[in-house]
From TrEMBL:
The keyword Membrane applies. The chain crosses the membrane at residues 21-40, 52-76, 88-112, 124-145, 181-197, 209-235, 247-264, 285-314, 354-379. Keywords: Membrane, Transmembrane, Transmembrane helix. The lineage of its organism: Eukaryota, Fungi, Dikarya, Basidiomycota, Agaricomycotina. This is Malic acid transport protein. Pfam families: SLAC1. Residues 408-432 have a biased composition (Polar residues). It is a multi-pass membrane protein.
């Protein structure tokens, strides 16, 4: 008996099938470059140009990732659903919202000053972000918590499920601005929006309180994750392999929260006073309390960074197929790095400004190394490339499902037109004897 030749699978089909939500950290790492660069005090046209290039590159990566995953969901729906339910890859789903946050920050920094967008447009984007964060995080939390997880395999990267509510886009102050600006993602986004809004605008009250609300929600939830992380390394020792990258995620929540509190407090100082809310001294009290809290959280963030970086080189597996996890070296560190600059201005500590400059250059160099290594891994087919068998399996499943639906529709039509004279028998059970319930061919 002759066997039919196996269908050929194109490289494009294998790329689409093999794409995953782990692609979004690349865009977030790109966004981390211009967010840290925007905090440099001494400005120049060259620096602004570099930031703008990274801003547009980030947008291009965002649309590429989003479009590819949408095509994957249409062409290979079972693979898309599999990725969302995967205990490891599924935690990266909320990063699509975080990537969107970095774009909002860039839009505030580079599109608003030139008059390309209005305050009303950015105000609408803020609420789009908040809604997107909620409708993305809660379903993924339900999926993830619907099954037990091994504490010995816990990693701070699990906090990605909550990060969008912790990080509402915020951006460091521009050299031309006088007031401090907020940052962390709903809290971070809100202080970026507040920096361009008139404090007398009643809408600013809602943005301020929503920023505090989600900043508290996100931070305290991720703080619980940090506690679990400490318990985990007490049991198993420092994270190793690809999980060693996840150690840097732990410094993100306290770092971004510190930055957000300082900037939200600075805005509350004006907004509460102008609108006569609470007490006459409420704004000053909120601001002073925010700075004190931020300083303590900044210390925690720096500690967690050192706790991750000191054993990193000895614990990491140097394999290119794990390069995507290394992007955690970039964006989680933005919070405490920009807090360093903000505290340097606030407390007039010149050394903090030097540290910020050094770490900003380090983030830039890290991005350059990672983008080259990621490109090599992509070219060699080590990432974002499925096996032909996996693509064919899902393609067979889709083809079989469509054929069954067509047969069922034909049978229903025949049954309807000959209901009085024709008896339609069910298909023999052997029709699918060589396929299991998931459409996979049985051996």
């Amino acid at each position: 008996m002759s066997l039919e030749p196996r269908p050929q699978v194109s490289t494009l089909a294998r790329r689409i099938h093999g794409w995953s939500w782990q692609a979004f950290p690349i865009g977030m790492g790109t966004g981390a470059v211009y967010v840290t660069l925007s905090g440099i005090k001494e400005r120049s046209s060259t620096l602004t140009t570099i930031e703008t290039v990274f801003y547009f590159l980030n947008m291009a990566l965002f649309f590429l990732n989003t479009l590819t995953l949408v095509v994957q969901a249409i062409v290979y729906p079972r693979q898309a659903w599999r990725l969302m339910k995967d205990p490891v890859k599924g935690i990266f789903v909320p990063l699509v919202v975080l990537s969107f946050a970095t774009i909002i920050i860039g839009t505030i920094n580079y599109a608003f000053p030139t008059g390309h967008v209005s305050v009303n447009f950015l105000y609408a984007l803020f609420w789009v972000y908040v809604i997107s964060a909620v409708i993305t995080c809660f379903p993924m939390l339900m999926i993830w918590f619907n099954k037990p997880h091994d504490l010995n395999k816990f990693t701070p990267a699990y906090a990605f499920l909550i990060f969008p509510m912790v990080l509402a886009p915020s951006v460091p102050p521009n050299i031309t601005m006088i007031n401090l600006y907020p940052k962390m993602l709903v809290g971070v986004v809100s202080f970026n929006i507040l920096r361009i809004m008139d404090p007398a605008d009643t809408r600013a009250i809602g943005v301020l309180f929503v920023g505090y609300f989600f900043q508290g929600l996100g931070f305290f939830m991720t703080f619980i994750y940090i506690v679990i992380y400490i318990i985990r390394i007490m049991i198993t020792g420092f994270l190793d392999g690809h999980q060693a990258n996840g150690a840097f995620v732990a410094c993100g929540p306290p770092g971004f929260t510190a930055l957000a509190l300082i900037n939200l407090g600075a805005r509350a100082r004006e907004i509460l006073d102008i609108h006569g809310l609470l007490t006459p001294q409420a704004g000053e009290i909120w601001y002073a309390t925010s700075v004190m809290s931020a300083l303590m959280l900044y210390g925690l963030a720096v500690f967690l960074f050192l706790f991750g970086v000191l054993p990193y080189w000895f614990k990491l597996h140097k394999h290119l197929n794990e390069i995507l996890g290394c992007w955690a070296l970039t964006f989680p560190n933005v919070g405490w790095i920009n807090t360093t600059r903000t505290l340097g201005d606030l407390l007039d500590i010149y050394g903090f400004r030097i540290i910020h400059l050094v770490m900003t250059i380090t983030i830039f160099i890290t991005w350059c190394i990672l983008i080259v290594l990621t490109a090599i891994a992509f070219w060699k087919g080590l990432i974002f490339l499925s096996q032909e068998e996996d693509v064919l399996r899902d393609a067979v499943y889709i083809s079989r499902t469509s054929e069954d639906e067509k047969n069922q529709s034909t049978n229903n039509s025949t049954r309807g037109s000959h209901s009085e004279t024709t008896l339609v028998l069910p298909l023999p059970s052997s029709t699918h004897s060589d396929m299991d319930i998931h459409g996979q061919r049985m051996v």
